[in-house]
Design goal:
Elements: E1 4-8, E2 11-14, H1 15-37, H2 43-68, H3 70-75, H4 90-108, H5 112-137, E3 151-153, E4 156-161, H6 164-186, H7 190-193, H8 199-214, H9 228-262
Antiparallel strand pairs: 1-2, 3-4
Helix pairs in contact: 1-2, 1-5, 2-4, 4-9, 5-6, 5-8, 6-8, 8-9
Length: 263
């Protein structure tokens, strides 16, 4: 692996922060452009919502990092104060960012459904880019495996690990491509999205599903036999299904209203 891409004097540029910074930058700029050009949300309003989301993502991801490594803090509670060592967790980060974004959208009177569909595709590609940073950094490790696809890390060359990070990256890439086809097939735009999101519910269900199953192959702390990512994956699936059903009902109601008006 290559945890340090290069060094400039005493400053080390790590692959983890380079890839995740690139991932976040891609998500922010792409979502803002899509929200303004495709989903009818003014550029400045989209930027304000994204600022709130970034704040929510970092808070949620850091709190999730504590839970993801809870045995460390149970054994040494004083380490809780070392917040820079807590690590981050993507699932709680999504929850924090989503709640912050919904709050801001409600405050400024913009459609949550429209913004959610604008953000769905960039979120998938953000995960695709970011997970390669995890792989190069050697974090988010898989469980030991004897399978041929196992990866030997420099800090433990004698033990091969399940390559959870690349598999998660490709799963996210697949979701992103799927969402692109769905968006084009349904011809999503501001008018359609304002009556119910479809891309974000599909993202939540597919993301939650792959997190639940792939995290069985992830090493690390567990709570009642499951990793934190699996619990957040279940939450994502439940929210995604409920959101999808709500959107179907909204679309059906709109069609009925149009039919009634045409009589």
């Amino acid at each position: 692996m290559y945890p340090v891409l290069f060094s400039i004097g005493p400053l080390s540029v790590t692959s983890y922060y380079v890839f995740w910074s690139a991932a976040l930058f891609t998500m922010i700029t792409w979502t803002r452009r899509r929200a303004a050009s495709l989903y009818g949300i003014p550029y400045n309003d989209a930027g304000d919502v994204l600022l709130w989301m970034i704040f929510g993502v970092f808070i949620g991801a850091m709190l999730g990092g504590y839970l993801d490594h809870w045995t460390r803090y149970a054994n040494s509670p004083e380490q809780i104060l070392n917040f820079w060592e807590s690590g981050v967790s993507s699932g709680p980060g999504f929850i924090g960012g989503g709640l912050a974004g919904i709050y801001k959208l409600r405050r400024i009177g913009r459609s949550v459904d429209s913004f959610a569909d604008a953000a769905a595709i960039p979120c998938a590609f953000m995960l695709f880019i970011g997970r390669w940073g995890c792989f190069l950094n050697g974090c988010c490790l898989g469980i030991p495996t004897s399978l041929p696809l196992g990866v030997a890390y420099p800090f433990a060359p004698a033990v091969k690990a399940f390559p959870s990070q690349p598999l998660e990256a490709f799963a996210a890439l697949g979701i992103g491509i799927l969402l692109v086809f769905i968006e084009r097939a349904l011809r999503r735009d501001a008018e359609r999205a304002s009556h119910g999101a479809f891309l974000m519910p599909v993202f939540l269900v597919t993301y939650g599903t792959y997190r639940f199953f792939l995290d069985f192959m992830r090493a690390g702390d567990r709570i009642l036999g499951l990793r934190l990512g699996q619990y957040t994956g279940v939450i994502a699936c439940v929210v995604g299904v409920a959101w999808f059903v709500r959107s179907l009902k909204m679309t059906a109601s709109l069609k009925r209203a149009g039919t009634d008006l045409g009589k």
